[in-house]
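Build the 3D complex.
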Amino acid sequence: MSGSELKITAHAIIRNGKILRNSETIFESSDTGSDFLREAYEEGLKIDYPKFYKMDALGKSGIIATEVLLQDFDFGKYKPEEAGIVLSNKNSSIEADVNYFETARSFPSPALFVYTLPNIVIGEISIRYKFKGENAFFVSDQFDADWLHFYVSDLIHHQKIKACICGWVESVDENFDTCLFLVEKEQKENAVNFTAENLKEIYGLKV
Amino acid sequence: MSKNVYIAGVGVISAIGNNVAENLASLKNNSPGMGDMQRLESNHKGKLPVAEVKLSNESLCQQLGLPLHTSRTALLSTIAAKEAIENSGVTIKKYRTGFISANSVGGMDKTENFFIEFLNDNNAGDLHEVVNHECGAVTEITADHLGISDFVTTISTACSSSANSIFLGARLIRQGMLDVVVAGGTDALTKFTLNGFNTLMILDSQFCQPMDENRRGLNLGEGAGYVVLVSEKLAGSLDVKPTVQLTGWANANHAHHQTASSPDGTGNLLAMKGALKKAELNPSDIDYINLHGTGTNNNDIAEGTAIKNLFAGNYPLMSSTKSFTGHTLGASGGIEAVYSVLAIQEGLIFSNLRFETQMKELPFKPVTKLQQKEIKNVMSNSFGFGGNCSSLVFSKNA
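Done.
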């Protein structure tokens, strides 16, 4: 079955010191790394979710991107179990793994240990935004639009999922490359068709 | 299509015995399996007690005719699954048969051997030791050995893995897709799991005291446990008609934290409630709860609070057999399913060893002495990291 009736109803990008919502820059800072994420959280988006400070960089960038992605989202429209999350990246949770391993030389940190899996970012998004349907995290060499398109289409057509956050969330050496999409059946203003080509084009936006 | 799913056979290996008879004898004699590390090589040797299966890899391989490089996870699995099939009296070749096996470590025990050499020299290390690293590879080794190929799959949802395997098997039988399913799980002790749990600071340096006010954490164990599930039609054709059914199951998740349960036990309550509903039973019908009861501060209060809310004043007898076997992670739901079936067949409530002080938040305490009693319905709880909560209900034939 083709996914042509599915729409990308919003997208969010965090890259090169900028945050974009539907291709428009909504936050920009000369700060880098964790400072950038903290500034985006506190001053840019004014989120109030203290658990944010406990998260690793992958979790933080996932939460910020989702907050941006869901700015106009009608949370009453879907049941939690009808909302899925499918993410991917190249380097898994390597940053958290290395940070944890460093502490393991003296006293292994339980707080860091619980972030040493890539799908923890899915859990963080699920807990905060109540997206509690099917989820998966894939590791691939590069952004794989064809695979994401296939997998998310299948979830929506065959697995009772009606809305799905999908995309790429990467954090290496405090450099972020995050690009999330919201996929729904609904037609919305400025929505584009959910196709591999459109995923590639949006992911490839020059920031 | 009958919705009844029968338990035709059971098989188990754990720190308290290499087969069902030995496990039952230890449960009756209040004889726990923890002690100083004998087989596992770790810096924590002498400091953290573990519950090891007493057989060496060499003798397990010899017993099964499997090569020496086989992961211990697969060896334990094969021993227990084989026993379950023999115990059932089912000629599996004649039926559509499935093997659904859970584990959480895969072939990590062998990978750890490889890693030591590889870390020193990236051209060193025997690659034979990593080919079975992945969880599914372990299941395949056992399935091949048993000659099961109609349906083979692996479930890995941390400590609820085996319970989820068992009810997936029941669902496949109910839907008429398979006639027989060997379902349960296995896990071997590894440095990886020991160090991970130690990082979380939830290991007890003494023998664990589940459900106790002064509990300090869990002891890790290893083993495997399987049940042979059969359809009503097949059950009727067996020489010895099975007396126990799997009547209820449910899986829920409370999405609270990466490793911890929510303190009020939201997911635990959903799982127990769901399993009762599936079994068409009331809370008062449950005679015994085989608790998840790990001995950690967090699990026991979450599980206890959920029981307090669900059973509200009418508390069944309950105990954690992890006080015998330690926490066998992916295998625990399988091992405890076997114990639940034995509880019904033998009319026994097993003791919750080393219990001293009732938890101040709870109006009940576990059973501290072996009891003989007719048991009709047993609930078996398995609650995993990530909030993955499952409950099973086993019932005596009406």
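Residues 72-88 of chain B form the longest helix (17 residues).
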